[in-house]
Design a protein that fits this description.
ph1033 like fold, alpha+beta
């Protein structure tokens, strides 16, 4: 199993929107960055990810699961762009802010810290456990 982080502007697609989709989940569409697209191509059904609210909130707020591997993004006719489908698994007991993550030296190499603009990114197993612990949430 691999771990990921999915960033979304809450005004566009929020954790509450993701929860409302239930087990049907939702396409993680609209990504127009080759590196992020390539990360989605590497995802497998059952992989887990952090749902991260960007903009003002800048916090990990929930855990999602990949429920469909990379397929054409339905929001474009351009075949270069693909996406995965994800569903909400559980919210974080306590959201973990970007400041909290940056303050923990053990997370200094996390992609979120080094390349905070990337909308889809990998998370190591150790980072996964640490962020879950910071949020008092079962990994």
């Amino acid at each position: 199993m691999a771990y990921w982080l999915f960033k979304s502007e809450p005004s566009t697609w929020s954790w509450d929107d993701q929860i409302a989709r239930g087990d049907a989940g939702e396409e993680w569409d609209g990504v127009r960055n080759y590196q992020a697209r390539n990360f989605m191509r590497a995802m497998q059904v059952g992989d887990l990810g952090f749902f991260y609210h960007s903009q003002k909130e800048k916090s990990v707020v929930g855990i999602v699961e990949v429920i469909a591997e990379a397929h054409p993004d339905s929001t474009t006719k351009d075949d270069r762009w693909e996406c995965v489908d994800i569903k909400a698994v559980r919210p974080f007991e306590t959201p973990v802010s970007l400041d909290d993550i940056k303050a923990d030296e053990r997370l200094a190499d996390m992609v979120l810290v080094k390349n905070s603009r990337l909308s889809v990114q990998p998370v190591t197993a150790d980072e996964w456990k640490l962020v879950c612990a910071l949020g008092h949430t079962k990994p």
